[in-house]
Each structure stands twice: as structure tokens, then as C-alpha cells.
Amino acid sequence: MSTSLDAPKQLQDTLDNAKLHIFNTRTQLKSYHFEDLDNSTSAEGALSDPAIVASDVAAQISFLRKLKFQYLEQNAKDKYVKTIVSDDAPLITAASNEEIRQRNEEKKRNLKEIKVKLAEKQEDVRTLAPLVEEDYEKARSMTSLATSLSAKILDARLALTRLRQAHPQPRLTISTATATLDTQVAQMQELDDELQGLEKRIDESKGKLKAEMGEVEQLRGVERERAAELALVGKEGGDDDPRLSGLYDWLQTALNIQCSLLSLKSSHAESENELRLTYYIDSPSSTAAKELVLTLLFIPNTRQLASASVRYDGVDLELGDVVDAHVQANDTPGLVWAVLARARSGCGESDAVMS
Prior knowledge:
Blueprint: H1 2-18, H2 22-31, H3 41-47, H4 50-85, H5 94-166, H6 174-237, H7 243-261, E1 264-271, E2 274-282, E3 289-298, E4 305-312, E5 315-317, H8 320-329, H9 332-344, H10 347-354
Antiparallel strand pairs: 1-2, 2-3, 3-4, 4-5
């Protein structure tokens, strides 16, 4: 009997000496001095690496799982031994085992459902985290934009207040500014039209000046030819009168003035009894001057006018009544003036059209 009573006591002493309880480990953990660890920069650099930290965490999780398994194993052994050596051991039947199994399965099923829900929550968190971050960035940008716009609004109000103080009443309204702008636009249009008219007149003046300069050059050439002819005649005649050159210049100038007044371009003797006169006539229906060629035929070796023909702007004119009347009267100047008057009055164009 004493042997059966000493056996449980010996088993209890063995279990106490075996240090199977986790409480001793917790006491050791609390009494451990962590300040003695080496806090070198290399260790800090190693712990700052995410891969090293992840492997360290995985190792610690594995160690804790093993420690948990050992705890459960030792706890089960402890309960089993206590149940065996206890005087009032509970009755364990198949029904109680089945009940425990069902409770365990129910707990496992609940645990599995909780794990599935947890996995779904984690997946939702992974999915929604970028969206939440994007919304957060948008909200932060909109907040900064609203702040900047508020500052700009305050600055604009301050600037408007300063403008109102700098420009008191009466101020320029939109309608007044629009009316002023319309008036200025009309004035600018008028000035632009006037400028175009002036430019056109300048171009016309330049053209006329160019034509007159050409005539001047032509007259200078004629003057040089006449001077050369006069010098040649003076040498041939042996006349050294110094007044001859001055008289020639005066005569040439008078002839040029007369030709300019009569719009006479040139006079050319085609033969001994034929004289061709070329005039420039200003037409009322055209801005450009037209050419009129008057050909006079005389009876040979006399000054008697025999006939005349008129060609105006490349078209022969039929002026039979005018020509016949002046030919019968032997009035050469009258014929010239009559033809020029008819051409300047515009009758020449109608006669040319009729012919």
C-alpha cells in the first residue's frame, strides 16, 4: 500500500525536477538582460534590410510554433499523468471522446471560416489600399489646390481693393470702353483709307516723275545732237560768232517748251513733201495717255497742203470734212488745232469706233 502511495509522489517529484512547465521559461525571459546585446552599426544595418528582417521573423515564428507544440505536448502529458495517478479519475468513454471530437471539428470549422474571412479581408485590403492611396493623393492635391486658390482669391480681392482706391469714381464702364473702342476703330479705318490714298498718289507721282525724267533725258540727248550738228555747221561755214550757241540754246528751249505745251512727242520728215507729227493725248475715259499720229502731205516744191491722215491709238480716223476744209484753205495750223481739239474732246474715240 505504501508503495502504491509513493509512486505518484515520485512521479510528481520527477516532473517537478524535469522543468517541463512553461512558467519557468517565462520567468527566464523576464529575467534576461537585453542590454548586454551588441548594438553595433553592422547589426542595425542588417536589421534595416527587409529580406533579413523577413527571414528573422520567419525563424522566430517557426521557433514559437515549435515551442507551442512542445507546450501542448507537455501539458497533455501532465494532464494524462495526473489523470492516471489521481484517485478520483474521471470516467472517459467513447461518447465523451466523440463529443470532444465533434467540438474540435466545430472549432476547426469555425477557425477555417474565420481564416477564410481573414484572407478575404486581407485581399480586400490589398485591393483597396492602392485605391485608398490614390483617393488620398487626390484629396491632398485638391486640398492644396483649394488652399492655393483661396490665397489667390484673397490676393485678387486685395488687388481689386487697391485698384478701387487708386481709381475712384467715375470709373470706365464696359459700355463706355466699347463705344470708345468702336470710335477708335472707325478713326483707324479712316486713317488707313487716307494712307492708302496717299500711297496711291505717291505711286502715281513717282510714275509721272519717272516719265518726265525720261523725257528730260530724251531732250538732253536731242540737245546734245543739235549742239553737235551746230558745231559741225559752224566749222563748215567758218562762222565763229559766239552768239550762235546762245541763240541755238534759246531756240531749242523754246521749241521744247512749245512741244511740251502742245503735247508733241516728235516731228519727223518722212520725205521731202511728207511730215509726220506724233502727239500724246490725255483721254477723259482713260488714265493713260494715247498716241495720235498726224501725217501731212504737201505738193512737192511748194507749201501747198495736199492731204492729211490721222491715226489715233493705232486706229485710222475718218475726219474727211475737217481735213478737206483745211486742205482747201491751205490752213496747216488750223488743221492741227482742229484735229487735236477733236481728239481731246473725245470725238476721236467715237469716230474710231464708227470707222
